[in-house]
Amino acid sequence: MHIMLSVVLVLATSLTGVSALPGPLRLANTFSHITNELSHISLGNCSLANASLPLSNLKVGLPEPSLHLTLKYIAVGRGTQNYSCPSTDASSRDKTAPTATGAAATLFDASCIASSSMTLLHELPAVAGRTPLGSLAFMVEMVSSTTNSSDLIIGEHYFDAAGDPFFNLRLGGGDDWMVGKKDASVSAPAKVYAFKIESKDVTWLRLTRKEGKGIKEVYRVMTFEGGAPSTCAGLNDTVIVEYAAEYWFYG
Prior knowledge:
Layout: H1 5-16, H2 24-38, E1 71-84, H3 90-93, E2 99-109, H4 111-116, H5 118-130, H6 133-147, E3 153-159, E4 165-168, E5 177-186, E6 204-213, E7 217-225, E8 238-250
Antiparallel strand pairs: 1-2, 1-8, 2-3, 3-4, 4-5, 5-6, 6-7, 7-8
Helix pairs in contact: 1-2, 1-5
Organism: Penicillium atrosanguineum
Keywords: Signal
Protein name: Malate dehydrogenase
C-alpha cells in the first residue's frame, strides 16, 4: 500500500480547515500545496501492530476481535446509507420511520495514517463526510496521476442480491473479500460540532463472515452521519443519506 487518499484529506484539512471546504479556486490551490507536500512524505507498507480499535469510546461496547485474528487493513469508507419509506398517505408517513435497505461506499486506504497517528485517523471520517463525493474523486485522480499510484482505492462495500453486506478488497490488487452478517451493533457516541448541535451518526458494528477469503471480521467505527431521518414525513420512497466511517478488517 503506497500513497493514500487519507493523506490528501489530512493535508487538505490542515490547509483549509475542517468546517470550511474550499470552492473550485481554493480547491485547486489546495491541491498544488498537497502535490508539493507529497514529495516530502515517505509511505510504504505500514505496520498496524500498534493500531488500537477505538472501542473504549463506547458506553456499551462491541465485542473485541477474536484472539486468533490479525488486523489486515484499515480503510475510510465514503458513500451512502440507503433507506426506504412506504408508499402510503402523508399521515401514515408522519408516524413511520425509514427502513434500512443497505449501503454503498468506496473504501480508501488509511493504514499508513493509522500506523503514524491514530488521532489523525479518527479525524478522517468527518473530513471525508464533509467533502463532496465529486471532490473526493477528483482528489483520487490527481494524486494517482501525480504519484503513479494505482491502489488509492482498496475496495468497495455494498449489499448483494441476497441483502447481505459485501466487502470487496480486490481493487487494490489483493484477493480478500467477505460476505458478512451483523454480529453486534451499538449506538455511535454523541458528538457536538461547531456548526450544529449534534450529528446523527449511523451505528457502530461488528460483522462476521458468512463466506469469503482472507477477511473474517469487520468493524465499522468512528461513523460520521448516515443515520436515518426520524420519520418518513416529506420524504421520497427511497431515502439516501451520505456518510463516512472507519472500517477495520481482521483475518
